[in-house]
UniProtKB/TrEMBL annotation:
Keywords for this protein: Disulfide bond, Hydrolase, Signal
GO molecular function: carboxylic ester hydrolase activity
Organism: Penicillium atrosanguineum
PANTHER family attached to this UniProt entry: CUTINASE 4 (PTHR33630:SF9), CUTINASE RV1984C-RELATED-RELATED (PTHR33630)
Signal sequence annotation: 1-26
One of the GO BP terms on file: monocarboxylic acid biosynthetic process
Protein name (Swiss-Prot/TrEMBL): Cutinase
Pfam families in UniProt: Cutinase
Amino acid sequence: MPGMICKIISLALAISSGFLGQQAQAQAVAKTQCASSVHAIIARGQGPGDDLNVMAKVQNMILDQIPGSTSLGLPYDHDADDKFTAVHNGALLMQNYVTEYLKICPESKIALIGYSLGAVTMMEAVCGTSSLLLIPTQPFDASLNETIIAAIAYGDETFVPLQPWDVGDCTVGLGIFPRLLPITCEPFASSLQSYCDYGDDQCCAALPADDNEAHHGYVNKYSQDVVNFIKGRLNGSVV
C-alpha cells in the first residue's frame, strides 16, 4: 500500500509539473499592455542569474529610445549544462511567445535579439536547424516576415560568412556549429543582422584568438546600431 501511495503522489506531481510547464510556455499579456511600436524578446547568453544579464543594456536602450516599445527577457534554460537541449527548448519557447503574443497584440511589431547561446536560440527559432549536432527545430512561418521586423544575433555559433545579413569584420571564420543551409533564413533576410567580429572564438572560429575578447564586446559596441536598425525598420527607412 505505501508503494501504491507513493506512485499516486508521484503521478500527481508529474501531472501538476506538466500543467505548470505548459502554462509557463505562454506569454501572458493584456491588450492594454500591447506595444504600440515594437515588442522585443531578448535571449541572453549562457550562465546563471536573471533572464537579461548584460542584455539589460539593450532592453533599456530600446525602451528609452523607441516610444511605445515593450520587452522581456526570454526565460529559457540559459544555465543548463546541456546547451543543445537549452537551445532547442529555447527556440520553441521563443516561437511560442511570439505566436501567443500576436494573438493578443496582432498590430505590434516584434524584435528578436539574442546573444551567444541566446543568439543560437534566436536563429534556430527564425531559420530552423541546419547545423550538425543541434536538435532539429522548424523555422518560423515565412508569413511572419512583416511582423518580425528585427532578428538580431550577437556572436552566433551558427554564423556563416558572406551572408547579406552579416555585420562585423568576420569574413573568413565560421561558427562552431555553422549553418549548412543559410537559405532557410532568407524569408527574414531584411530583418536579420548577425554581428560577428574577428577574435570571437565562437562565431568566427579557426582564426587567431585574443582570449575570445571580441565575443564579449557586442553589447557595448553595437547596441546603438541595433536600436537605430529597429527604428529604421519601424519607420520604413530600412527595408
